[in-house]
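Homework help board

Subject: predicted structure for assignment chain

Our instructor gave us this sequence and asked us to write out the predicted structure in token form, then describe one feature. I got the tokens but I'm not sure how to describe them. Can anyone check?
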Amino acid sequence: MLVVVHEDYDAMSKKGAEIIASRIRRKPNLVLGLATGSTPLGLYKELIKLHKNEGLDFSKVTTFNLDEYVGLPPEHDQSYHFFMWENLFKHINIERSHVHVPQGMYGDLKISSFETDPKIQQFCSWYEDEMLRYGGLDIQVLGIGGNGHIAFNEPGSSLGSRTRIKTLTEKTVKDNARFFKTVNDVPRYAITMGIGTIMEAKELLLLANGDGKADAVKAAVEGPITAMCPASALQLHRKAIILTDKKAAGKLSAEFVTYG
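My token output:
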């Protein structure tokens, strides 16, 4: 695990974009795992700049997103499908058929049937198989929640988990309420890649910024490997890079970090 601390969010985002761009230039048909949320927005803006100013070519890139809310249609302004098109895809030359975001709509299914409904099980299996059909994820972009979650793998998730439906914790619901009109509008369920799925990516790139992520970063980097901090699983990965700003790294011991 390599932890690189940057002066601020902009510097962190620029470095993250440079890493992704270098992988695309090396392998034009890169299979790229993507994340949503406020943290990777700076990275996506930098990738758009590289595309427009330096001709970074996404035409052969295939993407797979980590997760999606259950119950939100793709056109909903808080769906992750909408987020990705607004903040990245429509600004670059990616092929629509190369974009994969989990499907969060399942008609009138009852909440109690989510985990056992065969259609959902079939979709989760298909999503995993589709990643393998493209040769697996070359690099997966990750954020980290204040409670140490990655994607929607909340504390207590199996470190070997696969793509599935997850119930969101109250903390995650409250953290995400700022994007909705009220906390009651926040979906309580999401479809997400599992930790085991994420760990099969050839390379991981986790971004973290701000004081609110300092405890989670410390637990992920210096704490024990435990399901109670899902991001701690990254300690086991053969090629995991963590990029932070100074605030998010504020509780790390100096021996664990490199300064960018």
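Reply (TA_rk): Your tokens look well-formed. For the description, you could write something like this. The helical segments are 9-26, 41-54, 80-87, 118-133, 170-176, 195-199, 214-222. That's the kind of observation they're looking for.
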